[in-house]
Amino acid sequence: MKADKKWLKVLYEKYNHPKWIHPDPLEFVRQHQSPLDQEVAGLIASSLAYGRVKQILSSVMLVLKAMGGSPRNFILETDRSVWLALFKDFKHRFTSAQELVKFLEGIKKTLEHYGSLYECFAHYLEGYHFSVIPALSHFVRNLRNGDLSYNSLLPLPEKGSACKRLHLFLRWMIRRDSVDPGPWEGIAPSILVIPLDTHMYRICSNLGMTQRKSADQKCALEITDYFRNICPDDPVKYDFSLSRLGIRQEDFIMPDGSILRS
After folding, report:
1. Cα separation, 201 vs 185, whole angstroms
2. Can you tell me the distance from the alpha carbon of 144 to that of 180, in angstroms, rounded to the nearest whole number?
3. 3-class DSSP state of 92
4. Pairing state between β 259-260 and 252-253
């Protein structure tokens, strides 16, 4: 049975609540009040959101704790030498200390040039308002500072992968409800793409949202179009609620009485 608006509404009302956020790295974004700190914390937290949940939370906490109360000010007021000393032993799956430092350098240069991550993304979005992918590609290239080699923290959208973590970051920044803080005002959530990983792919496949055999960018766009038919103005509205099924490993009863296995 395919998911319809009625069933998704029930799921949303059950799970789209702050009490279900932990253990989601989104909790690190919500610890900050300033939009300028939320966007920096969000980019760091989402970029490290791969691997086991426990390891993700540990790595994000290690990095953000070292930055004190304002990750934005920390990055702007310190430099590579400080970061190399602080994070010399850092390792998160495929991400090394050197890669983390290059990532922070890209954030710093972007903040210095544009004033905020929001202004950088919005700048590129102006010419590509019909789709988030081109603007996101330019945004990532800007953060990479011209380095197009392998980067575990900043995949290139034009390569065709789902780029789940980047779309997760955009969901946090652009949507606003009881879960997503949405500090980036003025950007319509209608342009967002579902943050697709293997767990969400399995759930959406079981719900008949896609017939594709791999969780790539084309699959993410197909699933997003499915949601857009249900909720044109906010196609990723149900992402958080659906992802709770995978994270909490709970089964959910469908409207027809069948059981959706998470």
Report:
1. 29
2. 26
3. strand
4. antiparallel
How large is the greatest C-alpha to C-alpha distance in the chain, in angstroms?
60
Omega within 30 of 0 (cis) for the link into 23 = yes
Dist. CA 165–CA 46, nearest whole Å:
5
Place of tokens 């380095």: 147
Residue 232, helix vs strand vs coil: coil
CA angle 238, 243, 248 (to 5 degrees): 135
Rg (CA), the chain: 18
Q: Which residue has the tokens 């081109």?
A: 134
Q: Give the three-state DSSP class for 148.
A: coil
By CB atoms closer than 10 A (0-12, 13-18, 19+), residue 76 is: middle
The type of residue at 94 is F
Q: What is the pLDDT along the chain (262 residues), one digit of tens a residue?
A: 578 898 899 899 999 999 999 999 999 999 999 999 999 999 999 999 999 999 999 999 999 999 999 999 999 999 999 999 999 999 999 999 999 999 999 999 999 999 999 999 999 998 766 789 999 999 999 999 989 899 999 999 999 999 999 999 999 999 999 999 999 999 999 999 999 999 999 989 988 999 999 999 999 999 999 999 999 999 999 999 999 886 655 666 665 666 665 5
Q: Are 154 and 163 in contact (CB under 8 A)?
A: no
| CB-CB contact of 50 with 93 (8 Å) | yes
Indicate the SS3 state at residue 23.
coil
Rounded Cα–Cα distance for residues 71 and 38 (Å): 9
Q: What are the phi and psi torsion angles at 36 (to 5°)?
A: -70, -30
159, 150, 232: which is closest to 191 by C-alpha?
232
